[in-house]
Design brief:
The protein has 135 residues and is α/β, with parallel strands linked by helices. The protein is 41% helix and 14% strand. The chain has a 3-stranded parallel beta sheet with strand order 1-2-3, sandwiched between helices. Strand 1, helix 1 and strand 2 form a beta-alpha-beta unit. The radius of gyration is 16 Å and the shape is globular.
Length: 135
């Protein structure tokens, strides 16, 4: 079994609708941490989608990531550094070092989504075959 987790790259400077004191990305990280540590998913691989690359690339030029996530030491306006930093924040939640796959996505880019879903399908199929001792 695999867990698919979708997170937005562009929510680093937004707060929750129900709580103006809670950063959306920090809330997403907390939920991801809870899922990764959950006893119910101990044998599951994790597939992490970091979505909205296009919005991050536009937003990062006006809204510096370090103002919201103080651990970020990258250059202001550098979308690639921001993507890698955000990915690393999620990867650090995987303390048990279970199998984890990640994909940067843009839901409006149909070719990107098609390629990613084919990768996910293949990943799940391969894991199932291995679990059933067919490979």
């Amino acid at each position: 079994m695999s867990v698919i987790f979708l997170a937005s790259l562009s929510e680093y400077d937004q707060v929750l609708e129900e709580s103006e004191n809670e950063n959306r990305m920090r809330e997403s990280l907390a939920l991801f941490h809870f899922i990764v540590k959950s006893k119910y998913f101990q044998t599951s691989s994790i597939i992490l989608f970091l979505n909205k690359m296009d919005i991050l690339q536009e937003k990062i030029l006006k809204s510096h990531l370090a103002e919201y996530l103080h651990e970020f030491k990258g250059t202001k306006g550098n979308a690639e550094a921001a993507k890698e930093f955000i990915l690393e924040m999620y990867m650090r939640q995987n303390e048990s070092k279970r199998t984890m796959y990640h994909h940067f996505t843009c839901a409006t880019d149909t070719e990107n989504i098609r390629r990613v879903f084919m990768d996910v399908r293949d990943t799940i199929l391969m894991k199932t075959l291995i679990d059933l001792d067919l490979m």
